[in-house]
């Protein structure tokens, strides 16, 4: 019982540290001027689509959302490019899956325009999560 | 045994508030039995399923934990990888080289560039390697 409680708290800590690492790196590169857009990540409810779910999906906290805060509205291809960089990083995708995320969302700051992908399709772990 | 009989006899008495104590004792006994049954069900029936999931999770988690994720590289890849990829793919395209030896080297390099097209740190390494190899 105690093991489960400690494991749960450990996972929550790991999830929040990953999100804060991402935000810190994004902020520092924006301040240095290497990045024209400020990206911020946060945990969301995730997709309601059952096809996105996998064995480790967290209930009501399975979405990893990246919001692009730039001066101008981003085009769809720019949003897709941001998502593709995350999905091409296999270690990051595996870590996201292991920590209970199942949906990657990339959103613009203006309106509700965005794109989302099911993470399990990009994990390349041999269909274990199907 | 006498003690248990005494408890049951006491519980059948009506309390001063007018509520029956029988209800409360048997109610709590049934609740505790129900919790024990649920615990045993969880332990024995779902244990196989839980252990399989835990093993898979630990495998994936260990793999991802060994390779610490460089978030600065991820952010740089988002913002700068596209530019450096275009520059390298134009400059070191195999069709630009005529000598056989150079063409083979350029083909290998180009394949690596395409494979790491969204990895900024790897592209920077490849750029340095290409500059050494081709002196362009």
Short summary of the structure?
In chain A, 41% of the residues lie in helices and 19% in strands. Chain A is an alpha+beta fold and 130 residues long.
Task: Explain this structure.
The complex is a heterodimer of chains A (130) and B (136). Chain A is of the alpha+beta class and 130 residues long. Chain A has three helices and four strands; from the N terminus they run αββααββ. Chain A has one domain. Chain A has a four-stranded mixed beta sheet with strand order 1-2-3-4. In chain A, strand 3 and strand 4 form a beta hairpin. The radius of gyration of chain A is 15 Å and the shape is globular. The relative contact order of chain A is 0.17. Chain B has 136 residues and is mainly α. Chain B is rod-shaped.
Low-pLDDT regions of chain B: none
How would you describe the oligomerization state of the chains in this entry? heterodimer
What does the main sheet of chain A amount to?
Answer: 4 strands, mixed
Task: List the uncertain runs of chain A.
Answer: none
Rg of chain A, Å, rounded: 15 Å
What is the overall number of helices of chain B?
6
Topology of chain B as a string of helices (H) and strands (E) = HHHHHH
Please give the count of helices of chain A: 3
- Beta-strand residue percentage of chain B: under 5%
State the end-to-end CA separation of chain A. 28 Å
Number of strands of chain B: 0
Please give the most extensive interface between any two protein chains, plus how many residues each contributes: A-B, 33 and 23 residues
**What is the end-to-end distance of chain B?**
97 Å
Order of helices and strands of chain A: HEEHHEE
Characterize the overall form of chain A.
Answer: globular
Give me the count of strands of chain A.
Answer: 4
